[in-house]
Each structure stands twice: as C-alpha cells, then as structure tokens.
Fold these 2 entries.
Entry 1:
Amino acid sequence: MVRLNVNGAVREVEAEPDTPLLWVLREQVGLTGTKYGCGIAQCGACTVHLDGAAVRSCSLPLSALTAEQKIVTIEGLSAHADHPVQKAWAALDVPQCGFCQSGMIMASAALLAQNPHPSESEIRAEITNICRCGTYNRVLAGIQLAAEGGQGGRG
C-alpha cells in the first residue's frame, strides 16, 4: 500500500512499485483525464504536475514518489475549469480532437507558474508536447492569452 497526495487528497493505492503513475491515476484512483499516448515520455499526453513541475506520468514509477509530494492532474487544476489556461483554450477553441489537450494544458500551466510572461521562443522551447492535429499555433496563442491576462501563474 502506497500513500499519494493527489489533487489535495491523500489516496492509498496498491500497485507494483514499477507501475507508472499514469496507470495508478487512471486505474487505481479513477482519474482518467490524464491520457496515455506513447508510453515513453515523448508525447506529453500524460503530463501532470509533481510539486508544481510538469512531469510525464507514463514513465514515472510509483516507487519514485512519496506521500509528501503533491500530484495535480487536469481534474485538480481548477474547481470549475476556470484556470487562465483553460479559459484561454476555450476562448480560442484551441483543441481539434482534444486527446492531447489535458497534457498541453498541464504543461502550459506549469510553464506560466514558473514564468508568468514567457516569450514566444520560451514557450516553443518549453512546451514539447506532441499534437497529432497540429494545433501548435493555437496552443501558442492560448498560452500568450493566458499570460496576457496576468493570471497565468495560478495552479
């Protein structure tokens, strides 16, 4: 049995130590907003926050985590989908198919928490998530809109 702090609640889960956090979140905790994409930490569909930093949960084994670390999933980013990044995504209709968007939003929110007013080159360097639909220009615009709102650092 392992204790994890997920979205502000302590959860006890039972899984093998080498089980990726992604599968613990989806199967044991029941939070399916974090998506499986590639399984090798390249695409970013599985991005969550670990102590405020964006991490790819598909390659993070349960054994690497402690109960003191704070894990935030897309479900815990904001109570009413009102995080500045989520609002910008809706305002600009950023997603096409939407599969990668929870990871994109989590990566973007972590970036803005660390750097509330990133330049275009900083955004392009930091947001390495892959979108099959190619909505990268809308993602960039969404991050810029969230940053302009002055609320990007929340979450």
Entry 2:
Amino acid sequence: MRIIRYETPQGGARWGVLDPDGTVRAAEGDPYDGGLTPGAAVGDSGSVRLLAPVTPSTILCVGRNYADHAAEFGNPVPKEPLIFLKPPSSIAGPGDEVVHPALSGRLDPEAELVVVIGRRGRRVAPEDAMDLVFGYTLGNDVTARDIQKSDPQWTRGKGFDTFCPLGPWVDTDFDPSDVRVTCAVNGELRQDGRTRDFIFGIPELIAYISAFTTLVPGDIIMTGTPPGVRPVKPGDTMTVAVEGLGELSNPVVAESA
C-alpha cells in the first residue's frame, strides 16, 4: 500500500491512499494504529497536492553510511553509526521549494532511502528491529556544506527550514535490501549508489538508535547518501529517486530579503 498525505480544498491535510493507477483516495483511520480504510476518489497524483507523507517527532539521520561518500569528502569510515538530528521544521513536501539560505555559499542535495517507524520501540535487538518498520519513503538531506564544515556540530548546516524534503508516499510493501539510490539535478545524474553498499544495515541502525532513544510511530531514519555529491544553486531542480519506490523533486530558490 502507498500511503500519502494531501492538501484538502479547505487547506488542511488528511491521509490518503494511492492506487496503482495513480488515483488518490481519501482514507479514514490511523495508519499506525488499526490502519487506513480507503474511501472515495478525490483526484489523481497530478491534480492533488501531495504533502510530506509523515510528520515525525524525531528525524534521525545517518552520516557516512556509504564508504565512497565518506571518501569523497576525505572522511574516515565510521566504526559505529554516525547519528545526527534534523528539526521537524526542516520538513518539506514533494515539489516544495528548498530555500538556499543567504548564510551559506554551498548547498548540497543528498539522496536517501528513508525508514518510517510504525511501532514504539526501545532497546530493540537487531533480529527484532524490522518489526518496528512501517514502510519506506524518499528523502533529501539538504546540507549547507560550508556551515556544516565550520561548526563543531551539524545542527545548523543540516537544519535550515526546507532542508528535509520527504515523499511522495510511504510504501508499506517495499523491499529495501538492494535498490539503486540516485540524485539528478536538472536531469543530470550526480549521485548513484545501491543500498547493498550500506556500511550499517537497517536492522543495525534501528538497534543502535533505539539503545539511546525511544522510537515512536511516524519517526524516520534517513539511512545515508551515496557518492557524487555536488552543489546546487537557485533555479536548479533536485530529483531524488529510489528504484521501485518513486521520485521526489524539489526546486531550489534563493532566500528572499
């Protein structure tokens, strides 16, 4: 099932389900507690404005989870998962503008497979970790690279408003074990990798993270980005793609005065 959030004509948000033919159906219920019941069709994915499909309380990100990406910036491969956070205010949806802040001279997109948590968990063993997974979506860990490098912590460089595009849906039946993850800018392929090259796999990441914080439904884990990172500028369009899961595109705009 592909689960979405979409904007209603009144300007609110509600849950929906995307049919295989692209039809958007209104849905009742809670996707994490009892599931959703699809209802009447409200349009198709081209006529309905899709929102970020999750509203996580915690956005957990994994740095340097592809060896080639660590190498391209001259960084060592971590011996254990390198975890950082993004604020919920950084979330953007499919097609939303990503703002290039005036404070930064270099903005980089980072294509990522995103794990969506569906059950509460604390101190979860690796062999039980996948029981917590609700589904998967796409993410872009947008980074003000110069600020990230200048600060001892990554919060500012990773945490500007609009720096976490997510979407366009959550797929609850997706197999993430060996899929291609890419980022193209204006149609030009830049990043290119496969999830089989993760340094730390999804069960290991869930176990590591849940050892220090409680995961709750709707939380997300951004699993790291493949090599090929290069900067973007206002006017560019970034397109993250995960094989078999979909595409997520966002334009870059300059910060207004």
